[in-house]
Backbone:
C-alpha cells in the first residue's frame, strides 16, 4: 500500500492571495521525485477553528501531512497551539531549540525579544525538527493515523528542513523499498509539440520510464522518471532513455540542471575565453544574466547598452552610413555591434542584440518582434534573425536566450545556423 | 451572515507541483477586493473519486465554490462528468457553446476535432458561463447548499470568465449591499516593522479602514481597504487614510500602482531629462529595469556595464590612481563612475553602482553586501553606502532599487540623503 500524502499550507497571506503558494508546488514536486504521490493540497488561514478542523480531518484520512507556516513568534502564529489542542497535549519548552535561538540572536549582537521564546514551545509528544538557518524549529508528531511534519513558511528554511529532517523520516515510513529517479534535461529552440514529436515512442522503447514536459518560457524541460524495485535496472533504463533523448533532441539540450548562463560561464572558464555584450532592445538583460552567476568576473569584462543610434556609433563604432542605409534593426547593424564590442573590449567573443521589443515602433517591413542576434568570434561573425510575435518582456527574454545559446553553441562546437527561427516562428 | 467561499483547483499538473497554482492566489485576492473572505483552498488531481469527494464535501460546507481546471477535451478532463455524477444528472449538449467552438475552429481555418465536442457538454441543470477567448465554456450549478462556478484552468480565460460571468453572480448572492474599495501604496526604504510602527493607530483614527502590508522584496506595499454600506462615506475614509499614510511614511511611498522604473520614466519624460547608467556589481540590472518600460528610448540613451577595473577606466575615465588608492568598491569610485557616465553620455543624470555581491570576494573591511550607489546630477553628486547581508540576487536587487530610488527622489525634489542605510541594516 502506498502512503497517502497530503500538503497543508497555512497563513492568511497565502489564503488571501497576497502571496502565491510556491511551497506547496515545491513539496509536491519533491515528493514526486522521491516516488510519493501527493493526493491533495489544502490551504487554511490563521484561524483556530479551521486549523483544528484541518488537523483532525487530515489526521483521519492521510498517512503523511506536510504542513508549512504558522510557527512564528506573533499572535497570528497558531499552528503549535492548535496542534497541541487537537492532541489534547501540553506544550513543553524544548531547551535545545531555545539555546539555538538565543545563540542566533547573540550572533546578531542583540537580546532575544521575549515573545520569541514562544517558538521553542512544541506539543509535549512531538519531536523537534531542527532549523539551522532560522529561529523557529519545526516538529513531527502523529495525529490520529497520520504523521504530521510541521515546517516554517519561509521557503529557504522550509526547503532545508524538508531535505534534512523530513525526507529521512518519510523514507522510513515507506512500506516496500522502491527506487525512484528523475532526470530533467533543459532545452531551447524547439516548441513543446516539436519536442514531443521528436520523442514519440520513447516510453514504449524504455519500459518503466515516464516522459514529461515542463514549459519554463523560453525553455522546454524534458523530464524522465523511472520507478521500480531494482536499483541497478532502473538506473540503467534512465541512462539509456537519457541517451536516446540526447540523440533525438540533440543540440537543443543545453544541460541536465544548470541554467544557460551557468553553462556559458563553465565553457568560457574551461576555454579561458572572455565575453562582451552589446545590447539594444534587451537593454542590459544579457549582461545581467551573465553577471548573475558568481565568479563571472573571470570571463565577463564589460557590456555596452547602446540604446540610441548615437551610442551605437560612439561606443561600438557602428558606421553612420550603415545606420542610414539599413537602420539599427538590421543584420548589418547586429554584425557591426558584435564586431565593435569584440574589438573594443578585446574579448574572445561578443554577442549583440538589436530589435523591436514593442509595443510601439513597428512597421510593416520591420514589425514588433523582429530581432537580430549576432555572435562575433575568432572564426568570424554569424547573425540570426528571429521573429517572436509576443509581449515586450517575452521578446526581450527570448532574444537574450538566443544570444546566450549562440555562445553556448560556439563553445561546444555545435552548428550556429540551425533553427534559424527558433520555436518555429 | 457572510458567504462561506472556497477555492478548488484541479489538475495533476498543479497537484504534482509541475506548475505553481497562481489561479488560487488570483481568485482569493479578487474575492478579497470584492469584500468576500475565502476560507480555504483545496487542490486535487485528475482523479474521479477524489474529485467527487471534494465536490460533495464542499457542497455540504460552502456557499460559493470557485473551481478551476479539468474542462478540456482530453480523457484527463473529468470535472464536468464528475459534477454530473455527483448531481445525479445527465449531461446535455449546449448548442450555443458548440456553435461558439465550431466558429473558433473555423476562424483558424481548421475543422474541429471530434473530441472537442465533449467541451460543449454540461450537467443538465447547469447554466453555461461563456468563454469568449477559449473553447471550453464554464458552468454554474448548485451542488447541495453551495453554488459552484466551474472555470477553465488557463489563467487568461479564467480571469476573463471570472470578471464577466462569475463576479455578477456572486455579487447577487450577497445578502447586504456593501461597498468595498482598496488602495495599495508602494514604498521602499523602511522595513515592514518600521512602516508598521510609523502607521500605528491608523485603524483607530479611520474606523472602517483596514491596514495591511505585503512584502515584495525589496519594496513594502501598504494596503488600505475599506468596507461599508455607504459609498461616499467609505471613499472619503479611504482618501483621508491614504493622505495620512503619505504624511507619515512620506517620501518612502513611490506610487499607488506604477513600478519604480515607470515612476522614474514618467519623471524624466515630464522634465525632458535623460539618464545613463554605470554598473559594476548589478551587471546591467539597472539598465534592464529602465528599458523594460515601453518608450524608455525617449530618456535612456546608453548604459555602461563596467565589470572590470579596466572597463571602468576605459569607458568611464575612472582614474588608475583612484582605483589603486581606494579600490573599485569605494565612495570615490562610485562618484567617479557616475560623473564619468554623465559626462560621456551627455545626460541630465547618471547613476552608478559598485559593490560586492558575493558569495566570494569579501574582506573584513569590505564585506559581501557592501555597495556604493552614486547619482550625478546638474546639482552635484551624492553617494549612498549600503550594507545588505543577504544572497547575491538580493544584494543586486536592492542595489538596483536604491539607484532608481535616488533618481526618483532627485526628480521629485526629495531629500537624497535620508535613510542612509535602507531597511535598517
Residues:
Amino acid at each position: 500500500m502506498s502512503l497517502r500524502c497530503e500538503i497543508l499550507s497555512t497563513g492568511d497571506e497565502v489564503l488571501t492571495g497576497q502571496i502565491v503558494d510556491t511551497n506547496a508546488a515545491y513539496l509536491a514536486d519533491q515528493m514526486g521525485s522521491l516516488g510519493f504521490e501527493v493526493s491533495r493540497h489544502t490551504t487554511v488561514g490563521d484561524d483556530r477553528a479551521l486549523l483544528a478542523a484541518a488537523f483532525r480531518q487530515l489526521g483521519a484520512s492521510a498517512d503523511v501531512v506536510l504542513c508549512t507556516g504558522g510557527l512564528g513568534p506573533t499572535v497570528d502564529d497558531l499552528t503549535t497551539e492548535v496542534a497541541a489542542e487537537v492532541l489534547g497535549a501540553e506544550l513543553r519548552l524544548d531547551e535545545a531549540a531555545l539555546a539555538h535561538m538565543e545563540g542566533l540572536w547573540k550572533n546578531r549582537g542583540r537580546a532575544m525579544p521575549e515573545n520569541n521564546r514562544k517558538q521553542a514551545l512544541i506539543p509535549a509528544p512531538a519531536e523537534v525538527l531542527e532549523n539551522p538557518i532560522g529561529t523557529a524549529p519545526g516538529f513531527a508528531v502523529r495525529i490520529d493515523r497520520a504523521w504530521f511534519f510541521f515546517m516554517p513558511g519561509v521557503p529557504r528554511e522550509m526547503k532545508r528542513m524538508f531535505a534534512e529532517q523530513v525526507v529521512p523520516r518519510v523514507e522510513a515510513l515507506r512500506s516496500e523499498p522502491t527506487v525512484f529517479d528523475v532526470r530533467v534535461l533543459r532545452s531551447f529552440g524547439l516548441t513543446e509539440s516539436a519536442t514531443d514529436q521528436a520523442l514519440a515512442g520513447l516510453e514504449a522503447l524504455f519500459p518503466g520510464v515516464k516522459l514529461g514536459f515542463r514549459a519554463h518560457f523560453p525553455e522546454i524541460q524534458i523530464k524522465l522518471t523511472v520507478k521500480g524495485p531494482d536499483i541497478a535496472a532502473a538506473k540503467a533504463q534512465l541512462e539509456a532513455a537519457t541517451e536516446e533523448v540526447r540523440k533525438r533532441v540533440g543540440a537543443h539540450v543545453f544541460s541536465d540542471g544548470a541554467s544557460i548562463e551557468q553553462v556559458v560561464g563553465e565553457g568560457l572558464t574551461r576555454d579561458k575565453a572572455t565575453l562582451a555584450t552589446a545590447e539594444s532592445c534587451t537593454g542590459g538583460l544579457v549582461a545581467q544574466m551573465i553577471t548573475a552567476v558568481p565568479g563571472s568576473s573571470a570571463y565577463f569584462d564589460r557590456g555596452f547598452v547602446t540604446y540610441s543610434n548615437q551610442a551605437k556609433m560612439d561606443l561600438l563604432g557602428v558606421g553612420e552610413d550603415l545606420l542610414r542605409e539599413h537602420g539599427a534593426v538590421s543584420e548589418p547593424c547586429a554584425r557591426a555591434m558584435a564586431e565593435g564590442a569584440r574589438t573594443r573590449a578585446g574579448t574572445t567573443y561578443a554577442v549583440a542584440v538589436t530589435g523591436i521589443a514593442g509595443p510601439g515602433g513597428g512597421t510593416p517591413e520591420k514589425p514588433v518582434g523582429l530581432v537580430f542576434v549576432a555572435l562575433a568570434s575568432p572564426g568570424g561573425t554569424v547573425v540570426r534573425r528571429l521573429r517572436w510575435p509576443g509581449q515586450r518582456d517575452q521578446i526581450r527574454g527570448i532574444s537574450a536566450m538566443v544570444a546566450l545559446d549562440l555562445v553556448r553553441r560556439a563553445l561546444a562546437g555545435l552548428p550556429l545556423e540551425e533553427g534559424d527561427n527558433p520555436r518555429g516562428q
Q: What stands out?
A: The longest strand of chain A covers residues 219-228. Chain A touches chain B through 70 residues (CB under 8 Å).
